[in-house]
Design a protein that fits this description.
The chain has 113 residues and is of the alpha+beta class. Helix content is 38%, strand content 20%. The protein contains 3 helices and 4 strands, in the order αβββαβα. The longest helix is centred in the middle third of the chain and has 18 residues, at 54-71. The relative contact order is 0.24.
Amino acid sequence: MNKRQRIKKNDEFQLVFKKGKSVANRQFVVYTYRKEAQTEFRIGLSVSKKIGNAVTRNRIKRYLRQSFLEVKEELRQDMDYVIIARHQAASLDFHETKKSLQHVLRIARVVKK
């Protein structure tokens, strides 16, 4: 993911939380916020310290970033996405993470058909 595709600032996170819509499954909560003038999607990741140590949290974030890269052609490009990992995400391997993320994105109706 390049810098243009990341949400880093707290103000940007708060905008997505306040004005966006959220959907969830057992492993992830995804907030989506539509931005008209945006040409490519941006993602922000949030993994709490309650989920595990730094190694576990960084592994979850790596899996999420790679999953987004693999499904980016199917996603709406004019959106901001914030993904919050839940406790059960710590026990998933990469393929389960990708499958779970695709499931919650289908629920959010941001996947092109």
